[in-house]
Design goal:
By secondary structure, the chain is mainly beta. 6% of the residues lie in helices and 43% in strands. It contains two helices and 26 strands. It has a five-stranded antiparallel sheet, with no helix packed on it.
């Protein structure tokens, strides 16, 4: 599985993440996006190669960097300190991060492996263990989160041959869950082309998941969407991609639809509001939108990114966002 299969195909619109990131970084620090509320947006760090996810623990902000498609710029996991993103030695690129009881869980970029890092000493982790390695031929894992039930939830990655076709690989096109020790793996929801990142809302027992649609059907279809991944639901891909709702009648309905190629990537929650990063946005460029978790229309929250936004996280009354310049931003919510 190539980096293109794991990330570029997932986001569809990029020819090379590395080329865009390197070119933008060479131009110097970009201006930060703007909050619709007028709140100040701070640049808190730079230099994270393709930031994909955040985790927060022991007063630290950890950021996953996926790395470049060609492998020349390796990914890693970073901690934000004094305006800098410090790369943690020995930790590979990741598509998803989650923190629980002093342990950082990470999905290894492009691989079906979930690793737990523990023993944080203020500058690095001293212990690691492989929580789960998937069966033969399973695609890689994307984002992950830990639910109110104490289980890990993750999206299963896209493969080149299943870009617009049904996959026969184990757990493909689904959201899965498992115990913290990697046992008792269960399929939660199926029929999803590319479940990307996940978030829980207090009082809601199952995760909200961003899902990326096909890129080969023109400019106006199919929609991308967010689901509330309930046990046993089938969203119908590839028979149903929500371009023609009538064909989707037998299948579960997404929680929220977004325009084609808007590409919902990061997702995080505070209270009853979801914050969704839209890689391409809805017509005015990359943006973060606020989406009511109980239902309703989304509203723009952050706009004016210098490059596509990928990672979104929430902690301590602040929203964090990372874009393809490698910059990390923070704004009060």
């Amino acid at each position: 599985m190539t980096r293109r299969g794991a990330l570029v195909v997932a986001l569809g619109t990029l020819v090379s993440l590395l080329g865009m990131s390197a070119a933008l970084a060479a131009e110097g620090p970009p201006p930060p996006p703007q909050a619709v509320s007028g709140a100040r947006v701070a640049v808190v760090a730079a230099g994270v190669p393709t930031p994909t996810a955040f985790a927060f623990g022991k007063g630290n902000v950890f950021v996953a960097g996926y790395g470049s498609e060609d492998g020349k710029t390796p990914g890693g996991i970073f901690v934000l300190r004094h305006g800098k993103a410090l790369k943690l030695r020995g930790l590979p690129g990741a598509g998803g991060l989650a923190w629980k009881n002093g342990t950082l869980y990470a999905t290894t970029a492009g691989k079906p492996k979930l690793v737990a890092w523990s023993g944080w000493n203020g500058s690095t982790f001293t212990e690691s263990r492989v929580v789960w390695s998937g069966p033969k031929r399973i695609p890689g894992l994307n984002g992950l989160t830990i639910g109110w039930d104490g289980r890990i939830y993750a999206g299963v990655g896209l493969t080149d041959e299943s870009d617009h076709a049904k996959s026969d690989r184990p757990y493909a096109q689904s959201v899965i869950s498992m115990r913290l020790d990697g046992s008792d793996v269960k399929t939660v929801a199926t029929g999803l082309r590319q479940p990307w990142q996940l978030a829980f809302v207090k009082g809601v027992p199952r995760p909200y998941v961003t899902v990326l649609g096909q890129e080969n059907l023109g400019k106006k279809q199919p929609p991308d969407y967010v689901i509330l991944a309930k046990d046993g639901e089938d969203y119908g891909f590839p028979a149903c991609n929500w371009s023609k709702p009538a064909a989707c009648a037998p299948y579960a309905k997404p929680f929220a639809l977004f325009p084609a190629h808007s590409s919902p990537t990061g997702i995080a929650a505070r209270g009853s509001t979801l914050y969704v990063g839209l890689f391409n946005g809805t017509g005015r460029g990359p943006e973060v939108v606020a989406l009511p978790a109980r239902g309703g229309r989304s509203e723009r929250f952050l706009t004016g990114f210098a490059a596509p936004v990928v990672a979104v996280g929430v902690s301590g009354g602040h929203l964090y966002a990372g874009d393809l310049t490698g910059s990390i931003y923070r704004v009060k919510i």
